[in-house]
């Protein structure tokens, strides 16, 4: 049984609109599968009870091409961040979502002291 919820596009948009505006959502959607991204967010909040603070797309400054999608997480330290990142990457690969693995980055705001 899959650990990641399989959701419809409408539900994915509803989840992601809690974190990004329509313009950002369109940029992200041109880079990664929105259903996959929303599934990761739902899984993180359910599996680890993390507080996702934001989702953003990081672009190359010269070409404006997307480099990765950042999922910001509140209240986790370095050790938690290392564990979350590794476990999430391994789980994505195991669940057949490896194509999104190199495009999504978890960032623990507390660990890098972002408020």
Give a nutshell description of this structure:
The protein is α+β, with helices and mostly antiparallel strands and 115 residues long. The protein has helices at residues 9-16, 22-29, 34-47, 78-94, 98-101; strands at 51-59, 66-74, 104-108.
Q: Would you write up a description of this structure?
A:
With 115 residues, the chain is of the alpha+beta class. The protein is 44% helix and 20% strand. The chain is built from five helices and three strands; from the N terminus they run H-H-H-E-E-H-H-E. The protein has helices spanning 9-16, 22-29, 34-47, 78-94, 98-101, and strands spanning 51-59, 66-74, 104-108. It has a three-stranded mixed sheet. A hairpin with a 6-residue loop joins strand 1 (51-59) and strand 2 (66-74). 19% of the residues are buried.
Outline the low-pLDDT stretches. Answer: none
Helix amount, in percent? 40-55%
Average of the residue pLDDT scores: 90
Work out the radius of gyration.
13 Å
Number of helices: 5
Strand numbers in spatial order across the main sheet: 1-2-3
Instruction: Report the count of strand segments.
Output: 3
Largest sheet: 3 strands, mixed
Instruction: Tell me the distance between the termini.
Output: 37 Å
Compressed to H and E, one letter per element, the order equals HHHEEHHE
Strand fraction equals 15-25%
Shape: globular
Structural class: alpha+beta
């Amino acid at each position: 049984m899959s650990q990641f919820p399989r959701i419809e596009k409408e539900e994915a948009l509803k989840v992601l609109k809690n974190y990004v505006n329509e313009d950002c959502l369109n940029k992200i959607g041109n880079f990664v599968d929105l259903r996959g991204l929303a599934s990761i967010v739902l899984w993180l909040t359910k599996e680890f009870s993390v507080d996702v603070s934001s989702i953003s797309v990081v672009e190359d400054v010269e070409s404006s091409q997307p480099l990765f999608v950042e999922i910001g997480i509140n209240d986790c330290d370095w050790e938690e961040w290392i564990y979350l990142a590794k476990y999430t990457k391994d789980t994505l690969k195991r669940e057949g979502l490896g194509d999104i693995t190199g495009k999504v980055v978890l960032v623990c705001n507390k660990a890098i002291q972002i408020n």
